[in-house]
Amino acid sequence: MGTDQTASKLELEDIQSIILRRRPSPYCGCHVLLRIEDASQGRELLRKLSPYVLSAAEYGRQETWMAVVITYQGLVALEVPESSLLSFPAAFRDGMAARASSVGDTGESSPEHWDRPYGTGDIHVGITLLSTTDSIFQASLEKARAVLASLPGITLLVREDFAQTPGARTPFGYKDGISFPNIVGNVVSLIVDDEEPIAAGEFIFGYPGEAGRMLAMPQPALLGRNGTFVSFRKLHSNVAAFRRFLNANATPAMSAELLAAKMVGRWPSGAPLMLAPEQDAPELGSDLQQMNNFTYGQDPKGLRCPIGAHIRRMNPRDTALEVMTNVKIHRIIRHGTSYGPPLPENVLEDDGKERGIFFIFLSAKAPETFEFLKKEWINSGNFLGLGAEEDPIAGAHTGKGMFSIPMKPIRRRLQDLERFTVTRGGEYGFVPSLSALRWLASSPAERATATSSTT
Ligand code: HEM
């Protein structure tokens, strides 16, 4: 389609920076989850926060980054009109917990085991605060505390802290946050590969999508335009089990490090197997221009990077798929952050501490795309001709998982993969534009006037 660059001059000053910008590095911060007990104080909260919410145009000029996200229950609590509520997609209205079993959140990942308040319907507003240093973060937190203290009708449910680990590694030990889709008109993010640009409407409402027309957006247009959706997940990493699995399956011909790289598709430094098939190449892993600059075309059988590896499933690029689809409409913007203390190197027993990633997944179809990726590309292998094989690191294995490593003369098939990733909670959110935030912050009468004057 229409990757016409002129069609999408993005209104960067109205789009929240969390959508289009990479995180600062290093970073530390928190997600604050709130419940609105009183509608007018909920609107007051948004009024007070609005000046601090960073746009994609401003990023870089400030040391603190604030993003605001609102759940469906939050829109209800803010007294958004019924006609507008009905314009939101069903998955968003149902909430993530209600859809859990269909995406493999079963057993220990099921909502009855989630950390509270996830899955209760109590989460109305999520605020993300990110700073470059702890002292700046603490100062921003103080300001946020002062806003909350003045609003007794807003309940603080939980504060989830996170920080960039040395080398930007997730708890499993792998660098994250490398891949970033090339979006038409996005002049503000360094794109690290030469993939064909994807129409901006797939990521932000109000612009043409890959089919050449705008996706249906939340109404009124003043609310939907320049906004998007987020899938937020709290994912616990079972690091000890992962390491034990690697040790148990390593052989003289395939070290634990190579085995893990085959599962992820990248080495710990971020260097991709497609460019570094034998061993890690840290210089490549720190070269933003090169580490994402590859396709799978010259590896149709998966001899370098297994077809079922995590990054090859999640973005098959030019891999021939058994179930045909346009890969570009399933791309997402990811801004995961790590939480919890790393498990010290070589420790093979679980220490009972919580660690994992807060997974942030943005797209104009985030609830739908998230559910598609989970059901079709993580919890199944059919699209690659791999039958019931699931994603080796993010699959919902129940101790009976399999993973095929194509090799000459015959492939190796690993058995009995455990569930290395356990869901601790999650929610779908709407990421309003800055003007939509102001609309939401105004009274129902003011909203009606603003809507009628723009139609
Ligand atoms: C705890 C679970 C997970 C871990 C530890 C994990 C880790 C990683 C790592 C290390 C990368 C490579 C870095 C990069 O290319 O940016 C990656 C890439 C990616 N992951 Fe995950 N991931 C997890 C779950 C998920 C889930 C649930 C999804 C989607 C539903 C997902 C989607 C992606 C995508 C789209 C990419 C980029 C692939 C590319 O463009 O090449 N991940 N992940």
Give the topology:
Elements: H1 17-20, E1 28-36, H2 39-49, E2 64-70, H3 72-77, H4 82-85, H5 90-94, E3 125-131, H6 134-149, E4 154-163, H7 221-224, E5 228-237, H8 239-249, H9 256-264, H10 282-285, H11 310-314, E6 333-334, E7 337-339, E8 356-363, H12 366-378, E9 401-405, E10 412-417, E11 421-431, H13 434-441, H14 444-454
Antiparallel strand pairs: 1-3, 1-4, 2-3, 5-8, 5-11, 6-8, 7-8, 9-10
Bound molecules: protoporphyrin IX containing FE.
Protoporphyrin IX containing FE (HEM) is lined by residues 170, 172, 174, 176-179, 235, 237, 264, 266, 310-311, 314-315, 332, 334, 357, 370, 373-374, 378, 393-394, 421.
Question: Which series of helices and strands comes N to C?
Answer: HEHEHHHEHEHEHHHHEEEHEEEHH
Instruction: State which percent range the strand residues make up.
Output: 15-25%
Number of E-type strands: 11
Q: Cα-atom Rg, whole angstroms?
A: 22 Å
Structural class: alpha+beta
State mean pLDDT (0 to 100 scale).
92
Q: Gap between N and C termini, in Å?
A: 29 Å
The major pleated sheet works out as: 5 strands, antiparallel
**Ions, cofactors and other bound molecules:** protoporphyrin IX containing FE
Percent helix: 10-25%
The total of helices stands at 14
Poorly predicted parts? 1-7
Structure in words:
The protein starts with 16 loop residues before the first helix and ends with a helix. The chain has helices spanning about 15-20, 40-50, 70-75, 80-85, 90-95, 135-150, 220-225, 240-250, 255-265, 280-285, 310-315, 365-380, 435-440, 445-455, and strands at about 30-35, 65-70, 125-130, 155-165, 230-235, 335, 335-340, 355-365, 400-405, 410-415, 420-430. The strands form three sheets. Strands 5, 6, 7, 8 and 11 form a five-stranded antiparallel β-sheet that branches. Strands 2-3-1-4 form a four-stranded antiparallel β-sheet. A two-stranded antiparallel ribbon has the order 9-10. A hairpin with a 6-residue loop joins β9 and β10. It has 14 helices and eleven strands. By secondary structure, it is of the alpha+beta class. The relative contact order is 0.18. α2 (about 40-50) packs antiparallel against α13 (about 435-440) and α8 (about 240-250) packs across α9 (about 255-265). The longest helix has 16 residues, at about 135-150. Helix content is about 25%, strand content about 15%. Mean pLDDT is about 90; it is low at about 1-5. It binds protoporphyrin IX containing FE (HEM). Protoporphyrin IX containing FE binds near residues 235, 332, 357 and 421.
